[in-house]
Design goal:
The complex is a heterodimer of chains A (448) and B (452).
Chain A: H1 2-21, H2 26-29, E1 42-46, H3 50-57, E2 63-68, H4 72-81, E3 86-88, H5 91-98, E4 104-107, H6 114-123, E5 127-130, H7 138-151, E6 155-157, H8 165-175, E7 182-188, H9 220-224, H10 250-267, E8 274-279, E9 291-297, E10 306-311, E11 333-338, E12 341-344, E13 347-349, H11 351-357, H12 370-378, H13 388-404, H14 411-414, E14 419-422, E15 427-428
Parallel strand pairs in A: 1-2, 1-4, 2-3, 4-5, 5-6, 7-10
Antiparallel strand pairs in A: 7-11, 8-9, 8-14, 9-10, 11-12, 12-13, 14-15
Chain B: H1 2-23, E1 39-43, H2 48-54, E2 60-65, H3 73-78, E3 83-85, H4 88-95, E4 101-104, H5 111-120, E5 124-127, H6 135-148, E6 152-154, H7 162-172, E7 179-185, H8 216-220, H9 246-255, H10 257-262, E8 270-275, H11 280-283, E9 291-297, E10 306-312, E11 333-338, E12 341-346, E13 354-356, H12 358-363, H13 381-391, H14 399-417, E14 422-426, E15 431-432, H15 439-442
Parallel strand pairs in B: 1-2, 1-4, 2-3, 4-5, 5-6, 7-10
Antiparallel strand pairs in B: 7-11, 8-9, 8-14, 9-10, 11-12, 12-13, 14-15
Helix pairs in contact in B: 5-6, 6-14, 9-14
Classes of the chains: A alpha/beta (448), B alpha/beta (452).
Chain lengths: 448, 452
């Protein structure tokens, strides 16, 4: 009954949209699934609250024709902002009903649903913008990237920094040889902490015992999606799902695709040869309070092998001597250690060295903006900077591989050896039981 | 509580009066005959104190003191000839000349006040590690022991081990070349055993009744009053800033002991720490779930500067490349990284010390033993102190050594407290030169009525 009411309202919304924006469905335009540059894309949001709202606001040069969210409390803001958009709870239903009306989707839902939602869209030939990390599991990232390549759709992962001037300066400075060969990189985040005296979401905690009622406007079963059945609890949603193995990808998954992206580009990294980690006491429910993950990357052409250390939960590398007294040693950062100097973020330290060095020669084209890149790609422009097949798929696989080394089931073994990684075969070669964590089993009724 | 205190004191007085007459043969500084026994008293006998006493049963155990007659009760029963006390000052007053030496194994926050009282009275002292709760206390104890000429031993029993001496000889021999980096770690505060799991929490709000057996006020000693709670005593006090010294204070005197000794590290120039703390009410009360502390030591003679990194809460250094697959980093241990190789060892005096990889260990032509060994190694640590009390030659980890080791450890604890800052250390003036907030932790204010 309720659904029918909503559908009616949705239908009204659709009518209004047509009236206001003179939408021409994609199939009418013909061609290879691309909207002409002069036309507007018809975009659907899978996820409408939180980060989805933020992403969709960047897409408002286009038509936002449908919005889907399992939590209509959180979606209300976007629903009100786009009254013309038809509203859904289940993205599968939305894709069914809107198939001929949408060109592209923005996927900004909890990590455990990224792959299922993105894949459903790709299978229908839709362009996809998906939040970082691309997926929850290593294998999902690979499968999704391959599917995007085959479908020829335009894709972009939501690591906005990839389009920035800072990323370009970092690459160009390193490629210019400003600090010589880089053999060591440290990258750290305060998350799940927020600074040193607050927390974004808890980790290192056990499963809540209480089973409060599901709020009226939450479709809990749809929120669970591919994850194993468990009772609703506000400790999971909104937002705090990041700390739970079943739903999120911890601090590393949340921030790794942001902060490791420029490192990947600057050092032209591919798959690592090994990964090793330590962390505070960890359980089967949530990610540890703090961790350190160490990746070893082989030489790439003339670039030397490099060790990359990831830290989270307030951990960070030692303050470098080159950093002047009085300068903050921030709770988030990237430190490149080269044979001829160090870079903090995209600047040489001390600052006097950067001043002396000036600016690197420009080698990379500047971006019109992270969201615009994708919109242009959807309309037949060149691939976006963090498209799945060429970049985001690999980056996400490597980031997520770090979480394997934190798995409680493997902790004892990880004290005895590093995980040796065969990137091409996508498997851990010296610890077969680790490979089960490359791909979860989806709950019945869900497939990739 | 009052009733309990009264009854214990009465009983102690009766026993004390009887025993004092029989055993009053002590002359300070006297020479001991070969078969003469030392008269030993112990303060804090429920936990480590019991173990320390068991190593000294060849001597006369004349008096025992514990603020908890239940927790200390098993030990009281084990030494029925010993007079028992609730208050160490009472014991020292009444036993006076009966006692040659005192074993102290109370919580960290009372080490200094008790230790000083014994030293002032000319008693030899065996004091559990860490030597004290604050750097000022450690310095004061060390200087007082020197001035009084008493024999001392800190309870880092690994310092009596054969392994730590072997490590010393290897380093002297240049087995791994000059050492520039040290990594050390402990799985505490979540070691998984009752004694190695410390609470991480805000100050408890409930105020349950104090058990009849416990004198809570005396347990608190010099620390600001707070209501009793069972989370503090026994054992879990280690996790609270006011009482314990955390994983680093608990284990650092064991795990950092080998590097501190064989590399003659002395005072660091600077120290910085990061921790997992974030909730102010928790951070103000207990040690963090995990921390990383980084020390920098200057060059010492021909030895180059050393960077020492401490990890706790199950954080570890990156796995050394030299360590063969399948070999585990111990739960508590250290790596000494030299220009020509790496040495790995476990806790309590370089236990299981090896050059890694094993091929390099096997190829190493070990130097001849040059250092004398302590009889019975780690297990002989208490008896080495007894020996020192009798022959006047310092014990293996006298305060002259244990003091500076503990100061270094406690400087790391201070850095955890003032996390996310680089502290510049002036050891002569016991002053962090770039952070005045440190002063109140270096020399804490005692509760009224308590002094060093």
């Amino acid at each position: 009954m309720k659904d029918r009411t909503l559908s009616r309202r949705d239908f009204m919304g659709a009518a209004a949209a047509i009236g206001a924006f003179t939408v021409v469905p994609r199939h009418v335009l013909g061609g290879a699934g691309h909207t002409a540059p002069s036309e507007k894309l018809n975009i659907a949001g899978i996820g409408a609250g939180g980060q989805a709202a933020s992403d969709l606001r960047h897409m408002e040069s286009e038509n936002i024709v449908a919005l889907c969210d399992v939590d209509w409390r959180r979606a209300r803001g976007m629903f009100n902002r786009h009254p013309e958009a038809r509203k859904y709870r289940d993205f599968r239903e939305m894709l069914d009903k809107e198939d001929d009306k949408i060109d592209a989707v923005v996927v900004a839902i909890p990590d455990h649903m990224h792959a299922a939602a993105s894949m459903a869209a790709i299978k229908r030939g839709k362009h996809v913008y998906c939040e970082k990390p691309l997926t929850h599991d290593v294998s999902e990232a690979r499968v999704l990237a391959e599917a995007a390549r085959k479908a020829g759709v335009a894709t972009q992962m939501g690591n906005q920094g990839q389009a920035s001037e800072g990323t370009r300066l970092m690459c160009e400075t390193i490629w210019d040889g400003a600090i010589g060969q880089v053999r060591e990189v440290h990258v750290w985040t305060d998350r799940p902490l927020r600074g040193i005296n607050d927390v974004y979401w808890p980790q290192g905690v056990g499963r809540p015992a209480e089973t409060p009622a599901v709020p009226d406007e939450v479709a809990w079963d749809l929120w669970l999606g591919t994850a194993p059945e468990r009772p609703y609890h506000p400790d999971y949603m909104p937002f705090k799902w990041r700390g739970w193995w079943d739903f999120g990808t911890g601090a590393l998954g949340d921030i790794g695709c942001h902060s490791m992206d420029p490192i990947f580009r600057a050092l032209k990294l591919g798959h690592p040869t090994s990964v090793e980690a330590c962390c505070t006491l960890v359980n089967d429910e949530s990610y540890p309070v703090a961790s350190r993950v160490t990746y070893e990357f082989p030489a790439r052409g003339a670039m030397a092998p490099v060790t990359l250390h990831w830290y989270d939960g307030g951990m960070k590398p030692p303050r470098p001597k080159e950093l002047e007294d009085g300068r903050a040693w921030d709770t988030n950062g990237t430190l490149f250690v080269g044979d001829d100097g160090k870079m903090l973020g995209n600047r040489l330290i001390p600052e006097s060295r950067q001043t002396k060095y000036g600016k690197p020669p420009q080698q990379i084209e500047r971006s019109p903006g992270h969201y615009v890149e994708w919109i242009q790609a959807c309309k037949g422009g060149k691939p976006a900077g963090s498209n799945f097949p060429d970049h985001a798929g690999l980056l996400a696989q490597v980031v997520l591989l770090g979480n394997l080394a934190l798995r409680p089931a493997l902790k004892e073994k990880v004290t005895r050896t590093r995980l040796m990684w065969d990137g091409d075969a996508m498997k851990v070669t010296n610890m077969p039981e680790a490979n089960q964590f490359l791909q979860r089993t989806y709950r019945k009724g869900w497939t990739l | 509580m009052t009733e309990s205190k009264g009854s214990i004191t009465r009983r102690a007085f009766v026993r004390g009066a009887a025993g004092a007459i029989a055993g009053a043969t002590f002359v300070p500084g006297r020479a001991f005959g070969a078969n003469e026994r030392l008269n030993i008293a112990a303060i804090g006998v429920g936990g480590m104190g019991a173990a320390n006493l068991n190593a000294c049963t060849a001597e006369n155990i004349v008096a025992l003191c514990d603020v908890d007659s239940d927790y200390g009760g098993r030990t009281f029963k084990k030494f029925p000839q010993a007079r028992t006390y609730l208050d160490y000052r009472d014991m020292l007053d009444k036993e006076g000349k009966n006692i040659d030496a005192v074993i102290i194994a109370t919580p960290d926050h009372t080490h200094a006040t008790i230790g000083m009282e014994c030293i002032r009275r000319g008693k030899h002292v065996y004091l559990q590690k860490p030597l004290a709760h604050s750097i000022y206390e450690v310095r004061t104890l060390t200087e007082a022991a020197r001035k009084q000429g008493v024999q001392t031993q800190m309870g880092n029993q690994g310092h009596s081990s054969d392994a730590i001496r072997m490590l010393y000889e290897w380093i002297q021999d240049g087995a791994i070349g000059p050492v520039r980096e040290v990594y050390a770690w402990s799985d505490r505060p979540v070691g998984g055993d009752p004694w190695s799991d410390f609470p991480i929490m805000a100050r408890p709000k409930e105020t349950p009744a104090v058990p009849k057996s416990l004198d809570w006020d005396r347990w608190l000693g010099p620390v600001a009053y707070r209501p009793y709670h069972p989370i503090y005593h026994p054992m879990s006090w280690r996790g609270f800033w006011d009482f314990g010294t955390g994983a680093l204070g608990d284990m650092g005197c064991h795990i950092l002991d080998p590097a501190f000794w064989v590399l003659n590290l002395g005072h660091p120039e600077r120290v910085e720490a990061v921790t997992t703390h974030y909730q102010p009410e928790v951070a103000a009360e207990t040690y963090p779930r995990a921390s990383v502390v980084r020390y920098e030591f200057p060059a010492r003679g021909a030895m180059p500067p050393v960077k020492l990194t401490w990890f706790d809460g199950r954080l570890l250094p990156p796995r050394p490349k030299a360590l063969e697959p399948g070999r585990r980093l111990p739960g508590n241990g250290a790596l000494l990284v030299g220009d020509k190789g790496t040495i790995m060892h476990g806790s309590h005096g370089a236990g299981g010390v090896r050059i890694i990889p094993e091929t390099q260990m096997k190829a190493y032509d070990r130097p001849a033993k040059s250092l004398p060994r302590v009889k019975d190694g780690s297990g002989g640590h208490e008896r080495d102190w007894v020996r020192a009390c009798k022959d006047g030659k310092p014990a293996s980890s006298s305060f002259e050594y244990g003091g500076p080791l503990t100061e270094m450890v406690l400087l790391g604890v201070l850095a955890m407290r003032l996390k996310d800052a680089t502290l510049e250390w002036d050891p002569v003036n016991m002053k962090v030169t770039n952070n005045d907030e440190a002063d109140k932790y270096i020399r804490p204010v005692f509760r009224d009525g308590w002094t060093l």
